[in-house]
């Protein structure tokens, strides 16, 4: 499995046969546009770096041609693009029993204008793809300009050249004796191509050899690696449910509150040609001996549930790779975006020891399970999610999930973590999660004692991260004097452009300032609309304070549509109950006390209160740590 990455120039040096059992070409314009746009953005980022676009599974025939088992759709598209770019002058795809498609590629290479006269119904999507690619444009992410493909370039590198020399496919050759029909059925049942993390898993497993014998695989370690990888990849299921009782005790200790790892080696090697094939890895037919230890009873889980996870496995894998390279003092640019997963591994995979990595992966996933918030249900309804922070607790003959931290401190941790999550809600570039994993590594990895982490220490770390992030944003907030009306010139007035981090932080600081009032009265949700309490259509002519921070709060999109045209009295009376952020609660309370008046004076007063609250941020965050008089040890 070495040297699997092939540039398109290298791919097109060979001949590919599309067998009859493959379905017809079916890619549409959206998929083609995304491929072109992604390649363009990769070029803008690094003109000399490789950009991986997926996998190609092939069987090498006796005459040297490659039979395409999986990846036909993508291979067809890149062939058409290369021909239209005039970077490929001859067909590289050949079809069993589909002469009309074979003729199509001959005509495309030699007489492209004649394509429109080809009338076979089996060519419809191929012709559509050609017409689209000829006219397609890519969009510059900085200024939204649309650029013709032939005009797209950076530093004298054209998109055409980048496409041929830097766009890379992973070409996997399956063994000659593979049952192709069975393999193809596997791929059809999957309904998708090999995923990037599956390719990396296969490459890492390929590196696991017997000590002192590079020509033989270490079966014991390969099995252990595969099982842990497969379990860690199921992000919606708690780790402990997927291990046997024997394995739980092995990796997490008798009480399930620690972490330990020892490599499994059966001292049995197999020749490289007899190692695990790609189809075995794909189907999960690579596993540790599942026989029970007769001296270890299988415990009962007293409460069974799955949870909604805040990140998917490919993006989580990027965090672990970045952390691994940092631990090894390897300077590496590792963006926390799974789109770059293959290119990062291509650059640094040689520096990664497979068994060291799987140990770190299991550790990070254990930390994620116990110390990162999840939701009890993954629903599209913004207000239906309930945040939880739980970990397994072992009893005599059963185990169950309990709060990772009890009391008010545990609730405050959930507030801090969920505030970060709803602010940085996408599954990519989740930098705060990376910092949390790094901190836990420094605190616990060496001794394996996860129970040593206290709520105070964890909360103190999160608050430091929040304060540093706030300072890095460079917000400029100053009070407005009593004889002035708030304006964009004398106050923070960005309206709907107000950063969600700032508005969520205001809610969190209110909670820290008055935990008895707010700790139990609200939960952070994925509120993503900035609401003007004094509605824009209710403002007087010449109003200068409508976009002021003192007139704003975060609500859900559905709430925003209901509230947008209401006056302040109706908002408070009709929508003033339920799960409201503290800032919104304060605004509604002030409105009531002002006898439904909400104008420049009230907005200025609330704005000045917010400025004062933010100025006390360090004092408030430091004061809440240890100040809630609750248990700080994990259960």
What does this structure look like?
This protein is α+β, with helices and mostly antiparallel strands and 635 residues long. Helix 13 packs across helix 15, helix 16 runs antiparallel to helix 19 and helix 22 crosses helix 23. The chain is globular and about 85 Å long. A hairpin with a 2-residue loop joins strand 11 and strand 12. It has a 6-stranded mixed β-sheet with strand order 1-10-3-4-2-5, sandwiched between helices. Strands 11-12-13 form a 3-stranded antiparallel β-sheet. A 3-stranded mixed β-sheet has the order 14-18-17. The C terminus is likely disordered. 37% of the residues are buried. The chain is built from 25 helices and 20 strands. The chain folds into 3 domains: 189 residues, no CATH class; 202 residues, no CATH class; 130 residues, no CATH class.
Could you give a short account of the major beta sheet? Answer: 6 strands, mixed
**Share of residues in strands:** 5-15%
Rg on CA atoms, Å: 29 Å
Structural category is alpha+beta
SS element count, helices: 25
| Arithmetic mean pLDDT | 86
In which order are the strands of the major sheet placed?
A: 1-10-3-4-2-5
Distance between the termini: 45 Å
Fraction of residues in H or I helices: 40-55%
Strand element count: 20
Tally of discrete structural domains: 3
Uncertain stretches: 282-297, 630-635
Overall, the morphology is globular
The quaternary state of the protein chains shown equals single chain
Structural key phrases:
3 domains; six-stranded mixed beta sheet; three-stranded antiparallel beta sheet; 25 helices; 20 strands; disordered C terminus
């Amino acid at each position: 499995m070495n040297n699997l990455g092939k540039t398109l120039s290298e791919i097109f040096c060979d001949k590919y046969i599309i067998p009859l059992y493959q379905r017809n070409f079916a890619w549409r314009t959206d998929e083609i546009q995304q491929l072109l746009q992604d390649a363009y953005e990769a070029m803008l980022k690094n003109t000399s770096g490789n950009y991986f676009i997926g996998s190609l599974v092939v069987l090498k025939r006796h005459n040297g041609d490659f039979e395409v088992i999986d990846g036909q759709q993508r291979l067809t598209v890149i062939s058409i693009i290369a021909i239209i770019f005039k970077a490929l002058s001859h067909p590289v795809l050949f079809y069993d029993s589909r002469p009309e498609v074979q003729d199509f590629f001959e005509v495309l290479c030699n007489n492209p204008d004649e394509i429109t006269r080809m009338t076979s119904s089996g060519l419809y999507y191929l012709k559509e793809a050609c017409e689209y690619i000829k006219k397609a444009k890519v969009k510059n992410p900085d200024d939204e300009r649309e650029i013709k493909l032939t005009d797209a370039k950076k530093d004298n590198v054209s998109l055409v050249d980048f496409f041929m020399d830097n766009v890379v496919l992973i070409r996997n050759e399956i063994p000659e004796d593979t049952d192709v029909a069975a393999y193809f059925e596997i791929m059809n049942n999957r309904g998708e191509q090999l995923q990037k993390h599956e390719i990396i898993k296969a490459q890492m497993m390929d590196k696991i050899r017997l000590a002192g014998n590079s020509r033989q695989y270490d079966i014991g370690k390969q099995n252990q690696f595969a099982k842990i990888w497969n379990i860690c990849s199921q992000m919606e299921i708690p780790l402990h449910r997927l291990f046997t009782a024997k394995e739980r005790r092995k990796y997490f200790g008798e009480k399930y509150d620690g972490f330990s790892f020892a490599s499994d080696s059966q001292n049995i090697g197999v020749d490289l040609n007899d190692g695990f094939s790609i189809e075995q890895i794909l189907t999960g037919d690579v596993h540790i001996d599942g026989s029970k230890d007769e001296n270890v009873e299988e415990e009962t889980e007293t409460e069974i549930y799955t949870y909604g996870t805040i990140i998917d496995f490919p993006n989580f894998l990027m965090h672990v790779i970045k952390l691994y390279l940092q631990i090894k003092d390897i300077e590496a640019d590792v963006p926390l975006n799974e789109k770059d997963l293959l290119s990062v591994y291509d650059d640094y995979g040689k520096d990664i020891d497979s068994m060291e990595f799987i140990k770190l992966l299991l550790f990070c996933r254990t930390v994620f399970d116990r110390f990162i918030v999840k939701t009890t249900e993954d629903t599209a309804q913004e207000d239906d999610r309930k945040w939880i922070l739980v970990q397994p607790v072992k009893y005599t003959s059963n185990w169950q999930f309990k709060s990772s931290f009890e009391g008010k401190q545990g609730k405050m941790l959930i507030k801090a973590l969920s505030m970060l999550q709803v602010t940085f809600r996408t599954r990519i570039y989740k930098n705060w999660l990376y910092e949390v994993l790094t901190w836990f590594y420094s605190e616990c990895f060496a001794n394996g004692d996860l129970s040593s982490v206290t709520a105070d220490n964890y909360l103190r770390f999160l608050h430091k991260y929040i304060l540093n992030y706030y300072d890095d944003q460079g917000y400029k907030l100053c009070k407005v004097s009593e004889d002035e009306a708030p304006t964009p010139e004398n106050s923070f007035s960005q309206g709907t452009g107000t950063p969600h981090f700032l508005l969520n932080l205001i809610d969190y600081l209110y909670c820290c300032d008055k935990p008895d009032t707010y700790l139990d009265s609200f939960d952070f949700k994925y509120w993503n609309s900035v609401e003007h309490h004094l509605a824009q259509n209710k403002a007087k002519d010449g109003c200068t304070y409508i976009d002021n921070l003192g007139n704003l709060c975060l609500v859900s999109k559905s709430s925003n549509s209901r509230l947008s045209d209401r006056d302040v009295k109706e908002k408070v009376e009709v929508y003033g109950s339920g799960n409201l952020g503290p800032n919104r609660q304060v605004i509604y309370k002030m409105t009531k006390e002002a006898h439904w008046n909400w104008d420049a004076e009230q907005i200025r007063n609330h704005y000045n209160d917010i400025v004062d609250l933010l100025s006390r941020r360090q004092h408030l965050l430091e004061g809440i740590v240890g100040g809630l008089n609750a248990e700080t040890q994990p259960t």
